[in-house]
Structure formats: C-alpha cells, structure tokens
Structure to design on (1060 residues):
C-alpha cells in the first residue's frame, strides 16, 4: 500500500482544450519515489461549451478512480490542496471576435505631447478595433527614461475625459497607459489616474480600470495593445473563473484554492487571473512542456538519469491531431520565451509567451500519393479521425493509418486489417523518411547549440514519431504523455518578473542586480511562493544606447506555492454584478461578429505579385503598400542598427490615411538651385519604443529656419527647404524624409536617396563629410525634444564636434530628439547623394512580401541578393551565411552598444516531400546558388558578427577555434567574408524581416546577406577611412569589396507614366 498522503497534499491539474479536457490528480510527495510519478488518477474527456461542466466531469471521473484504488486512504474533500486549470477559453473569445464576451474600452494616455500621431489600436485589424475601442484621449503625464517627469498628471483633465467617456455610453473598461510607467515607482501616475477614474465613473460595477504597467513591460504601443485586450475580456473572465470556482465548490472542495496557469508556466490565483486574463492566453503549450519534463525527471535509462536536474535543456515535441508543436525547456525548468514581440489575432504585444514552432504534421494529417512520391499534410482530418481514417472504416489515408501499417506491434488503434494494402513497401519507406525528416528539422531549428538534446514526445499523435531522431540524444515517450498538459498545470510554480531601468552612475550593475534579485524574490513570495523554494531563474542586463549610465534589468524568480498559508478566495461565495448575472448560459457559446462596414484598401488586401506603384510625370505618389515595402527594406538596409522602422511606419501610414500625400522624386530631377533639407531622429531605440514621436521633428525644422533667417543679412532670402532627404535609409530614419515632406507637414517632395546608403552610428559618417567640399557641413543645426526644449547650434568647429555636443545634450533632453540639418543645394545633393535608396528599400521589401505570398521564404535571401544586383560572380550582393545564433555579447561604451554575435551553420531546407526513390526534395542544402555556381554548405561552420549599434563585419571562425572566449587572437584577413563600408544584414529566416542588433538572441534562425557599398564610400580613401574598418577600431583588417557596386534601379524610371 502506498504511504498515506498528508492532509491537503494532492493537486488537481485540468487543461481545457478546444477538443478535450484532460485531468490528473497528483501527489507531489510520490513524484520522485514512486513508479507512478505520484499520478493517482487521470482522465481525458470531451470539452463542453461551458468549460466548467467539462471540468466537473473530469474531476468527478478522477474522484471515482481515486475511490476505487485508494478508498481507505483518501477522502478527496480533505486531501485536495489545490485545483489548477489551464484554459484556451479567454484567448478563443478574442480570436473569434465574440461581442457577447468582449467589452468596449476607453484609453487614456498619460503622454503629454507624445504619441499624438499614433492613436490606440492603430495597427489592429479593422474589425477588432471597431469592436473594442470606444474612445481615446491624451492627457498630461509620462516619465523620461531616467525617471524624471515629462509632466505630472492634471486631475481636472482626467475628470473632463471621464465626462466624455460617460457620454459615449457602453464603455465598460478604461485603460490607463503612461510613458515609461513600468519604471514609475515614485510618482505612481497610472495608479493615481486610475483612482480618479474609479471615483468619477464608479467602481467595478460600472467600469473596470486597468493600469498598463500591471499587464506588460516596456514598449508603449505593445503594452497598450495587451492592456486593451485584457480590459475588453475582464467581465467575461470574472464570470468564467467564478464558474470554475463554483464548480469546484459543488464537488465538495470548499476552501480549496483555484489557480489558473499563465503563459510562462507559472500560476495565478483565481482572482488575479480574473484581473489579468491575457496572461493565460498561451498557457497550453507551456503546460505540455512542463508536464513532459516532469514525466521523464529521474527516469533511468542506460544507467543515467534524465531530467532537468542534469542542468541541460530538453526538447518537447507535442504531436496533436493536426500539428506538431516543439518547444525548448530550459535548464531552469521554464520554456524558452519568444523574442520581444508576439502577435495574437493580428495584434502586436510584448508580454511573455513560450517560443513554440509548429509544423503541419499530426496524427490526422492526410497522406497523398503522387507520381513524384507521397506527401503528408499540412491539412488534417483533425477530430474527425475516428470517422474518416481508414483504421476506423473511413476513406481518408492519414499518418495514423500509415503508422499502424508500418508498426505491426501497434494493436490498440482501430482495425489494422483495413490498412494492409494502403502503401507499397517503397511508399512505406518514403512515409517513414518524411515523418522523420520533418520532426528532425523542427528539432534542429529549435536547438541553440550543436549538442544533441533529449526529445520528449507527448500528445495523442506521438505514436507517429520514430524512436530515434537525428539531433536528439534520446527519444522518450513517457507513460501518461497523453495528459502531459494537465500534469504541467498540476505542478505549475509561482513566479514574478522585475523589468526596470536603473542609473549605474552611483551604483554598479552588480549592486543593482543584487537589489533587483531581492525584489524579484520578495514579489514571488508575495504572490504565494514558499520562501525556502524561491530561486532566481532568469537574469538579463541590456545597456541602453545613447543613454548615459543606464541599464535595463530583467529578472525572474520562481518558487513552489506555499500551501501552509491560509487561503480564502475573495469571491468564492460572492455574487456577480447585475450585468454579469444577467448573462445566461449563452455566454459560453461563440457569437462571432462580422464587420460589414467597408474597409479602405490596405497592403494586406493588395496582390503583391502584380502591384505597381503610382508614378505619374516622374513623381512617385507613395501608397500604404509602398510604405510597407519601404519600411521592411529600410530595416534590412539598417545593417542591424537605425532602430526598428515600425513606429515611424505607423505614424506615416496614419498621415496617408488622414488624406496626406507623400511624393518622392528622382535626384536627377531636382534643380541645381533647390534647397534640400534633412531631418532625423537621434537617441536610444529603447526610448523610441516607449516615448512615441510627437512634433519634435517639425519643431526642429521650424527653429532651424528661424535661426537661419535671423542670422542672415539678406532678410528677403528664403532659407526653407524645397525638398527633403533622409539622413540614412537604414532603420527608422529612412522614413523621416517622407514624413517631413508629407503634405500635412512641409508639403515638399522627398528625394529618392540619402546620405549613407545604409545606417551608421555617427553623423560624421555621411557622404557629404566624405566629399569634404565644405566643413562643417552639419551646422547650423537645431534639435527639439518635443516637450518644449530646443537647442540651436549656429556654428561648430567640426562635424565631429556637432555629433559629440548633440550626444551630450541627449541625456538632458529625454534621450530622444528630432534634428534638423541645414539645406544643401540641389547641385551639391547630386554630387553627394547615395542614389535611389528609397527605391532599393522598396524592392527589398517587395521581395520579402512576394516570398511570403508564394510561401517561398526559403528563397528570400536569394531574392534579396538578386534585387541588390546579385546573380553573378563578383556582383553587388551575396548570401554570406545561414545558421542560428548561438552566442551574443554586449557592452556599452561612449553611448554605443558594442558586441559580437556568433552564428552556427545549420540546415534550413524545407524538406516536405520525397522522390519516388525515397530521396528528399523541396529545398537546398548546398546545391545551386542564384549565380548558377555551387552554393556553400554552411553546416558545421561558424561566423561572428561584431557590431557597434550596426554590424561591422562577418568573419569566419576557424574550425580549430572551438570557444567563444573573448580572449582570442585578432581576426585574420583571410577569414573576412564582408566588412564595412559594405552592408552586412541579418535576416530572420522564419519571416524574411531584418533582425536588429538589440534583437539578437540565442536560437534565432538567420540568414546573413552582404551588399556592396555605394561608390560614394568606396571611391576614395577618405570614404573607406570614415566608413571602413578603422573607424570601428578594426585597424588590423583592411577593406576588400565583396563585389562590384550596382546602382539600385529607380522605381521612378521603371514605372513612370508621363502624361503630356
């Protein structure tokens, strides 16, 4: 007989999926000492429209099992310590756009003059925005990156906005979003504003109030998006969680706490989950991963123990009916998280979600025969497998049918006699090869090092997977794997995250880190963890570019829930609000809304394969589709720096939607006497994601021309620009020339060109400085911070002095400014400009969009190379490397982030079919390149990319150099694949989008592309000195061009429709 569990020892885990509701009862005290892993009962039952009914059915069934096996030892009502539930119910309400479960929301921004051009939900799908957003307004408030005030809140302003909200009617929630609110521990602006709103609009009975800082971290738009989704679903979440609690109570489990699992594999108390339902949206995959790890922990195999205690990561392969989901469970016991941003139902957010990769392979995947062999999926019979698969008398050949055919020992699934003649022997071998290849590929893509990792197979479709996989040190198919997600819920821990920015001027990073670790531990204990179990499981320090002595710290702590504490639910026996009570059982029936309002044409509705730009009489009129292409291309040309163009793109798109026109002209068409102005943003990318642009760009232009006029003896001379040009095409500044020139701003055309042809970290790394026809070129200059502060420099000793002085002023101006540079003549512009770079960005972005439209992202690198003049040996561009990032180091020096990225070659081919001889086809590994020559096989090789904000070089790491140690001999010239001023761009292999240096992270699959620099840089030794290796401290390397520069093809020349 098993030892008698202590009172209140058992944990119930329930996972409510779209098809099935799984459950387990688990005794943690037996987890490591019993072959049963402490699993006393488990069940899989159909999910019900009202999930609480399915939960009751699952738990009741498990109680029956428990009584049958442990009747003398256990009384459930006395032994259950907790019930933890994972559910997709909340996220489904958002995905289904169900108006019966979503409330209308008002947004109040505490942002002062900032973000005025980018309203809330600006980047949402039209139907989502119209369904949820009821009102929005900006009021005073917000912080700078150093914690000082942009402005304090004004109570009277907030009171007036509450009156407007009340007038609108039907608004049930208000989101308060302040600039840099996640670091606001002193002024508590969001909290104070929330108190005013509650006082004016009533308590929860009338309106919910959500502070954005409670929902997500840094990233103004993304945090706001998450807060709006969270606010919209609050009433439904409260009702649902109340139903969960009542269901548990009806089972006799009075006083037993109910928890909800969240995205990162930890739990929220029921009432907290009712406040933050968005944090449960992606909990399903996480539950499966943690449950899988639990099932193999301590397992003996070949004399060695498996599990996290060995300090290694593990791969979890969850094979369902339609897809196979793969995630990496880190040594700390938590899933690897996605990069900074995630997307749900077309809405971009920045809260933590597990990094899961999926392929169309499952137990119900349809298998088809063709003249070139067989194919598998991606379509599936899904939950209809028991009717449609051959094994069950159906007519559709599925992977499960084929698996039973190839494995006669499987006798528990259907009628094997029905699949005897389904495949020939040759087709059987093809089937095995394809399934094995697909799973091996996705495992390899998820790995962060060449070392083989254990692979744990779970899910109802795991039977189709082979027992051996390349890249996996072991393949484990543990018992109870079909309910791994419920097990993950039962064992979930408590965690807390501290994400903050600190000044390292008075204290060291190490001192701050210890304080922040302590804070994270204290928050975890406050959330319910037992003090002795809490540990710090994740630490990240990110120095901020162009912000003196500032570092961003992200620390996560986790621990086991403390069941010794008294726990009472705040509303177990409470009543729903009158409105919630009035909602009947149809609350749980999806009622999908269809937006019948006409929508403006957007780039997503345009056929990118046939789209042509509007060029009339040699003037290019920019559309939203053009803007999308250009924005994508700008980030590629940013060579890792320049900041993401996303926020600038959203701003310019709003101008277009408001009726503004944006014109681009060829440099050749600009009169010699023209005045070509320039404007740009300067500052830290971290600031730009939080403090969205206001009017600082236009304010700087206005102040510059005032200064020029007042200093001139000729008062009749007009110093205003007749044209605009971008300072740098790379990154967010690549769009500023068009933004300033828009008809709603300066109403002048933008030149198709820029002063860099890429992005560089300093202002003196520009082609006008290279030509050195007059010096300094960048004074006078004006900068504005958008909050009333303007700096004008009428004179400067040198262009380097301009750069240094502006950088020094940045820290006192919020670490982000708009700058206005003095106009040059049209004749000067023609001599100095890097021509047709707006066209080049457009073509690069179009190449990525077309690759997506044709599902050929596997060839996006080749397409980009061709657009840049590649296609033959020695040409202007080439693919340098394909692999995954396996190492990143960063440090801050003189305001710039220096670092190094290590990339290891890997196979990225998409092997989806086989020939009729069993050989894989459908992708390239080696093979022919775009130039018809044999392509390099990158597998097993490594390169490094040193960067100073932007990428400096791509350098081969010799095979004998097996470490990533910093103390190594200097790089050798023969190992250089490309180096500045040539462009080295890193592309996300999964999306085709550029990856900026702040976004480099372990495990990211990337393609490295080299593009020859403009001859404006390489045509003189001065250009090579200013933009080449020596300018970045690489004196031991010399510039050798990767190919012959080819001037980008002008969109205006190609598509012009001249009308006499």
């Amino acid at each position: 007989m098993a030892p008698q569990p202590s009172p209140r020892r058992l944990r119930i885990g329930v996972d409510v999926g779209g098809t099935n509701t799984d459950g387990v009862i688990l005794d943690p005290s037996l987890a490591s000492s019993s072959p049963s892993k402490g699993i006393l009962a488990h069940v899989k039952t159909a999910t019900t429209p009202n999930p609480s009914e399915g939960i009751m059915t699952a738990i009741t069934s498990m109680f029956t099992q428990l009584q049958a096996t442990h009747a003398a030892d256990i009384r459930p009502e006395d032994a259950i310590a907790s019930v933890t539930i994972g559910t997709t119910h909340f996220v489904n309400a958002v995905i289904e756009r169900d108006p019966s479960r979503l409330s209308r929301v008002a947004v109040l921004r505490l942002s002062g003059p900032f973000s005025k051009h980018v309203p809330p939900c600006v980047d949402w799908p039209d139907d989502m925005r119209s369904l949820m957003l009821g009102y929005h307004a900006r009021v005073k408030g917000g912080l700078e990156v150093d914690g000082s005030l942009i402005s304090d809140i004004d109570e009277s302003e907030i009171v007036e906005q509450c009156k407007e909200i009340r007038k609108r009617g039907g608004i049930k929630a208000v989101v308060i979003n302040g600039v840099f609110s996640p670091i606001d521990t002193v002024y508590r602006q969001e909290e104070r504003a929330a108190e005013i709103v509650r006082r004016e609009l009533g308590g929860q009975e009338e309106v919910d109030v959500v502070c954005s800082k409670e929902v997500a971290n840094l990233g103004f738009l993304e945090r706001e998006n998450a807060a709006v989704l969270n606010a919209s679903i609050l009433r439904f979440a409260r009702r649902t969680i109340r139903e969960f609690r009542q269901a548990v109570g009806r089972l006799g489990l009075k006083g037993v706490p109910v928890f909800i699992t969240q995205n990162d594999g930890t739990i929220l108390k029921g009432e907290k989950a009712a406040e933050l339902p968005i944090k449960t949206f992606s909990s399903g995959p996480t539950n499966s991963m943690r449950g899988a790890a639990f099932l193999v922990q301590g397992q003996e195999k070949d004399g060695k123990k498996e599990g996290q205690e060995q300090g290694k990561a593990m791969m979890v392969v969850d094979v369902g009916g339609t897809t196979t989901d793969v995630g990496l469970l880190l040594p700390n016991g938590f899933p690897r998280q996605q990069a900074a941003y995630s997307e749900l139902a077309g809405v971009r957010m920045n809260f933590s979600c597990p990094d899961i990769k999926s392929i169309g392979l499952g137990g119900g995947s349809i298998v088809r025969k063709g003249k070139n062999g067989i194919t598998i999926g991606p379509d599936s019979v899904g939950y209809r497998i028991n009717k449609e698969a051959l094994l069950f008398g159906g007519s559709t050949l599925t992977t499960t049918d084929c698996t039973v055919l190839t494995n006669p020992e499987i006798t528990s699934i259907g009628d094997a006699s029905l699949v005897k003649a389904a495949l020939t022997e040759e087709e059987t071998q093809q089937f095995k090869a394809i399934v094995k290849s697909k799973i091996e590929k996705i495992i390899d893509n998820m790995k962060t090092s060449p070392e083989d990792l254990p692979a744990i197979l779970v899910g109802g479709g795991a039977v189709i997977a082979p027992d051996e996989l390349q890249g996996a040190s072991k393949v484990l198919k543990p018992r109870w794997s079909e309910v791994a997600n419920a097990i993950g819920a039962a064992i979930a821990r408590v965690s807390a995250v501290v994400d903050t920015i600190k000044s390292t001027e008075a204290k060291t990073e190490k001192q701050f880190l210890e304080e922040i670790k302590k804070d994270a531990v204290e928050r975890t204990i406050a959330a319910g963890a037992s003090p002795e179990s809490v540990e710090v499981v994740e630490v990240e320090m990110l120095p901020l570019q162009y912000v003196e002595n500032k570092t961003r710290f992200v620390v996560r702590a986790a621990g086991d829930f403390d069941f010794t504490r008294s726990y009472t639910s705040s509303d177990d026996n409470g009543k729903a609000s009158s409105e919630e009570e009035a909602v009947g059982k149809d609350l749980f029936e999806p009622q999908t809304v269809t937006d019948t309002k006409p929508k403006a044409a957007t780039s997503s509705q345009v056929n990118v394969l046939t789209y042509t730009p509007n060029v009339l009489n040699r003037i290019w009129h920019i559309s939203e589709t053009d803007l999308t292409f250009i924005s994508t291309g700008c980030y590629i040309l940013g060579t890792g720096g320049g900041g993401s163009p996303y926020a600038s793109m959203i701003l310019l798109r709003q101008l277009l939607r408001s009726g503004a026109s944006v014109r681009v002209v060829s440099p050749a068409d600009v009169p010699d006497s023209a005045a070509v102005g320039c404007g740009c943003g300067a500052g830290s990318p971290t600031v730009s994601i939080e403090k969205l642009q206001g009017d600082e760009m236009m304010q700087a232009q206005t102040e510059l021309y005032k200064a020029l006029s007042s200093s001139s003896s000729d008062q009749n001379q007009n110093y205003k620009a007749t044209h605009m040009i971008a300072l740098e095409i790379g990154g967010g500044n690549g769009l500023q020339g068009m933004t300033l020139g828009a008809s709603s701003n300066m109403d002048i055309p933008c030149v198709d060109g820029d002063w860099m042809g890429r992005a560089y970290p300093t202002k003196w790394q520009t082609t006008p400085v290279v030509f050195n026809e007059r010096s300094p070129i960048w004074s006078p200059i004006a900068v504005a911070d958008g909050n009333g502060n303007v700096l004008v420099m009428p004179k400067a000793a040198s262009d380097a002095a301009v750069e240094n002085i502006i950088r020094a002023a940045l820290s006192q101006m919020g670490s982000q400014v708009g700058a206005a540079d003095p106009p040059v003549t049209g004749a000067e512009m023609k001599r100095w400009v890097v021509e047709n770079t707006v066209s080049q960005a457009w073509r690069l972005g179009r190449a990525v969009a077309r690759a997506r439209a044709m599902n050929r992202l596997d060839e996006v690198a080749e397409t980009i190379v061709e657009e840049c003049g590649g296609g033959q040996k020695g040409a202007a561009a080439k693919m340098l490397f394909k692999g995954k990032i396996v190492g990143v180091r960063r440090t801050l020096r003189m305001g710039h982030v220096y670092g190094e990225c290590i990339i290891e070659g890997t196979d990225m081919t998409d092997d989806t079919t086989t020939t009729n001889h069993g050989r894989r086809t459908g992708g390239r590994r080696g093979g022919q390149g775009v130039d018809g020559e044999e392509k390099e096989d990158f597998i097993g090789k490594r390169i490094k990319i040193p960067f100073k904000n932007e990428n400096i070089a791509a350098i081969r790491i010799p095979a004998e150099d097996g470490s990533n140690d910093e103390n190594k001999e200097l790089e050798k010239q023969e190992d250089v694949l490309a180096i500045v001023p040539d462009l080295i761009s890193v592309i996300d292999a999964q999306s085709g989008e550029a990856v900026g240096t702040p976004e480099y992270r372990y495990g990211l699959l990337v393609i490295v592309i080299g593009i020859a620099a403009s001859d404006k840089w390489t045509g003189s030794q001065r250009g090579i000195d200013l933009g080449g290796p020596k300018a970045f401290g690489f004196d031991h390397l010399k510039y050798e061009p990767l190919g012959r520069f080819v001037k980008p093809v002008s969109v205006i020349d190609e598509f012009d429709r001249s009308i006499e």
User: Anything to note?
Assistant: Residues 425-446 form the longest helix (22 residues). The CA atoms of residues 5 and 1047 lie 76 Å apart.
